[in-house]
Amino acid sequence: MTSSQPAAGQPASGTTKPATIKQLETGPSRLLSSRLAAAAGLVVLVAVIGVFPLVFTNATVTNFAVITLIFVAVVSAWNLFSGFSGYLSLGHAVFYGTGAYFLVVAAKDWNITGSAVFWLLPLAGLVAAVIAVPLGLVALRVRRHTFVVITIAYFFIAQLAASNLNVTGGSSGLLPPVPNYAASTFNNPFYYVAMLIAAIAVALAWLIRRSRFGLQLRAIRDDEDRAAGLGVRAMPVKLSALVLSAFITGMAGALWVYFIGEAFPQFVFDPLFDLAVVLMGFFGGLGTVAGPVLGAIVLEPTQQWLYLQETNGYSAEILFGALFLVVILFLPRGVLPTGAEYLTSIRARIARRRRQEGGPPVSVPEPGSQSSAASPPSAPSQPSATAGGTP
Q1: 3-state secondary structure of 251
Q2: Are 234 and 224 in contact (CB under 8 A)?
Q3: How far is the C-alpha of 319 from the C-alpha of 181, rounded, in Å?
Q4: Residue 97's Cα: distance from chain center in Å?
Q5: Which of 146, 167, 293, 384 is 20 to 30 A (C-alpha) from 309?
Q6: What are phi and psi of 263, to 5 degrees?
């Protein structure tokens, strides 16, 4: 006599499980909810950044914020080239200083003062981008390790040129025009301009990463020879990324020199600048969009605070050098990629546990059970009672 009754606690044969229907129904809704949550978080973040100087009116705090936003733009621009292509540049101070000196010289020669100086920022970025073309045509003919050495050579050439040319004021430097802003809100115009440049840099990095151009850059980073074999024109792609990166870096450098009010070669072309940019990029996550932002937001205010607290001139550099070693040795992929991998592994373990608890019955009996010992070898060919079959 056949039995059509399923075993206790088991669904009937041919019955659709409610959990499966729920998964089908909530799949698109989860994706939509995650996108809405990301959009809401972005709106909240922009709102917080927008009202920051209105809430925190202390001059030291807003000074930290302006410099931090400038570094957000610079590190995002550096990552747009170095992080996506794999060509680590230690010469972005060349573009930073080019933009800075252009603004000072142009404002002086054209008698531009006040808020009108901000209109020179795109021109400063354009000059830095133009400088990047011949430099890139030479440096990008070599591969990664040699490229790093060439960018260092570019940096020292630019620093020596700025220290000896009359147009840059030589070692005496130049002074940009001083804006006539109220002392209580002096930093606010610089803050919002820096926020705009940082937003442009992050948005550009996000768009490029999702584009075909970004895919080509990542293919070059993974295997340049194979990418060339697949039809990627490596030289134009790398040069375009370098020019875009130089444009944003030049604008940031021009804003920086207008904000601090002085342009001396040893500060405009500072070797520690490139090291700080690289550290921030590695700390947050090289090749990501949010990683450089995180690195700049965490490390630049920390560096500024250390400069205020230090009793000698090198404690901040020593600490940052030690931090660089820690990041390279223990977090080579950065905080965000490492954290994402850790969260993914946790979610995988949770999902595996849920499948084991609420999934379909296991066909293999547990070890030590009597049924396993009594089951003949030909049992799989006979329907089991636990599966709702007939004995």
Answers
A1: helix
A2: yes
A3: 36
A4: 22
A5: 293
A6: -135, 100
Query: Read out DSSP for 91-135?
Result: -THHHHHHHHHHHHHHHHHTT--GGGGGGGHHHHHHHHHHHHHHH
pLDDT digits (tens, 9 = 90+) for 63-90: 999 999 999 999 999 999 999 999 999 9
Phi-psi region of 173 (alpha: psi -120 to 50; beta: other; left: phi over 0): left
Question: Six-digit token pair at 200?
Answer: 């442009």
Residue among 164, 150, 170 at smallest CA distance from 91: 150
**Rg for the chain, CA atoms, rounded:** 29
Q: State how far the Cα of 90 lies from the Cα of 380, in Å rounded to an integer.
A: 66
- Cα 375 to chain centroid distance, Å, stands at 59
The mean pLDDT value of the chain amounts to 84
φ, ψ for residue 235, nearest 5 deg = -65, -50
pLDDT tens string 355-372: 888 655 444 444 444 444
Query: Which residues on neighbouring strands pair with residue 263, listed in sequence order?
Result: 174
pLDDT at position 175 over 60: yes
- List CB contacts of 287: < 8 A, sequence separation 6 or more: 79, 83, 84, 218, 221
Distance of CA 190 to the CA centre of its chain: 23
Decide which of 356 and 384 is more confident. Answer: 356
390 sits in the region (left: phi over 0; alpha: psi -120 to 50; else beta) called beta
And the tokens for 383? 């329907």
What residues does 174 pair with on adjacent strands? Answer: 263
Encode pLDDT of 108-146 as tens digits: 999 999 899 999 999 999 999 999 999 999 999 998 889
Percent of the chain clearing pLDDT 70 (strictly above): 82
C-alpha pair distances (Å), 55 with each of 47, 58, 185, 242: 12, 9, 12, 37
How many whole angstroms separate alpha carbon 208 and alpha carbon 289? 10
Residue 271 CA to residue 154 CA, distance in Å, equals 12
Q: What share of the chain is helix, strand, coil (3-state, %, to 5)?
A: 75, 0, 25
What tens digit of pLDDT does each residue of 253-265 get?
999 999 999 999 9
- The per-residue pLDDT for 152 is 95
